[in-house]
Amino acid sequence: MAQAGASVAEILTRGADGRAAISAPGRAGLTRAALSRLAETVRAGLNGRGIGRGERVAIVLPNGPEMASCFVSVAAAASAAPLNPSYKADEFSFYLGDLRPRALVLREEDASPARAVAEALAIPVIGLTPEGPAGGFRLDLAALPPAPAVLAGPAAAGDEALVLHTSGTTARPKIVPLSGANLAASAGHIAATLGLSEADRCLNIMPLFHIHGLMAAVLASLAAGAEVCCTEGFNALKFLTLLAEVKPSWYSAVPTMHQAILLRARQHPAAARAAGLRFLRSSSASLPAPVMAELEEVFGAPVIESYGMTEATHQMTSNPLPPAARKPGSVGRVAGPEVAIMDREGRILPPGAEGEVVIRGPNVTAGYAANPEANARAFQDGWFRTGDEGRIDAEGYLFLSGRLKEIINRGGEKVSPLEVDGVLSAHPAVAQALAFALPHPMLGEEVAAAVVLREGATASEQEIREFAAERLASFKVPRKILFLDEIPKGATGKLQRIGLAARLGLAP
Fold first, then answer.
1. CA distances from 52 to 56, 106, 155, 362 (A)
2. pTM of the predicted model, to two decimals?
3. Which of 85, 111, 241, 392 has an alpha carbon 20 to 30 Å from 477's alpha carbon atom?
C-alpha cells in the first residue's frame, strides 16, 4: 500500500509488469510496464519543454482511459489540473485564469472552447492523440519551445501533484493544492479500506475531473497493483451490460448514480446478481439507508459508504468490509486521517456530542493556494474544519447531520436536511428526496423537500407529509413538497441543496 511520503511516480513502479493497469470496455489496455513507459515519455517531453515538478498542466479531456493515464502521467512529473470538459468559455476563462497553468492538454481534434480561452490567456496547448491500447496516447508539444525544466525528474512527495477547485456554493471556489504525499497516502488508505489486491478490477463511471474518480477508482487501484476499467461516462441504461462485459469486482459512485442503477437493477435482478460484485462503494454525498439496503439485496454484495472531500484528497472515513459492521446512515469509521468533533470554541468534544467534523493527517491539504483568509478560517490547532456537522458514536462511527451552511434554521429550531431526506426516502413511493430551506417571513427558514416518485408509483403531498409526521418531530416535517421528474444535480452528480428554492422559483 502507499505510504505517507511516497509519490505518484513511486506508485507507478509497483505491481507486476505484465498485469493490466488501465483499460476500457471492449479494448485491451495498458499493462503496468506500458503505463510506466508512457509516464516516463510524458515526463521527458514536459521536462524538455521547460515544465517540471510542481508546475501546473491543465487537462481537459473526455472521460475514458486516456484521461486516466494522462492524469497519472502528468501527476508523476508535474501538477495535474483536470477541468470539466463541459465548461463554457466563461467558466474556462475563470478556472484557467485562476490556475495559470504552464500548458493545457486537449485532444488534437477537440473543438473545446478551452482552446480559444487558452489562446487568449497565452497558455500553450498540448495536443493529445490516442494511440495503441486503451489509455495509450502521444503528445504534440510543438506549441512549447524547447527549454530545460528548473525542477526536472520524477515528482517528489512534497511537490504539488494535483490541483482542484472546491465546488463552491455562494463563495468564490478556492484552489486546493494536493502534494504527491497527499495522493499516495489517500490512495493507500482507500486500497486498505477496500482490501484491494492485484485480483481486483474497478469499473470507473465517475467523472475524472473530480477527486472521487481520480482517487477512489484510478489511483487507489494503481496503488494496489489492481486494474481500473474506464468508461466514457455514466449511462444507467448500459450499466448492467457493462458489468457483464467487463466483469469488475467493484465500482464506486455517488448516490444519484446508485439510485439510477437501482432502477435498472430492479427490472433485471438476475443480471444484477450475476455480476458477482465483491462490493459496491458510495461516496461524495449521503446514501439513503433504504437505497443501501435494496442495493445490497439486489446485487447480493455489501455497500461500503464512505465520506470524502477534496481537501482530504477524498477519503476520510468509511464503513468497513464484512464481517465488520456497516451502519446504515453512518459514513463509517476513521479510514485515513484522524477525525474528531469540535465545538465553535475549538474544543474537541466527546463521543455522542454534535459539532463540526475536523480532520488532520497525511492526506489533508496543507492549505488553500494564495488564500490566507480562508486558511485562517479552515485550520485550527492543526485541524482542518470540514464545514460538516456530525457526531461520533461510542463505537467510532461517524454520523453526519449536514453541511453547517445547509442546516435549516426554522425559527431557532435546527433541522438536519439529511435526517429529513432519510425519512422521505423510506416512503415506498419515493425514489429520491432532497430537503432544503425555504425562506419564511417570520421563521426565517421553513423545511421544504423535492421528491421524485418511483416509476409507476403515486403519492400525494399530504400522504408523504403524514408519513413523515409519524417519524419526525412536527417542526421537521416539510411544509411544502414539490414533485419533480429530476432533482437538479451538479457536474459530478451531487444533488444541489443550497440555492434550490431559488432555482425552483420558490424564493427571490
1. 9, 19, 8, 24
2. 0.88
3. 392
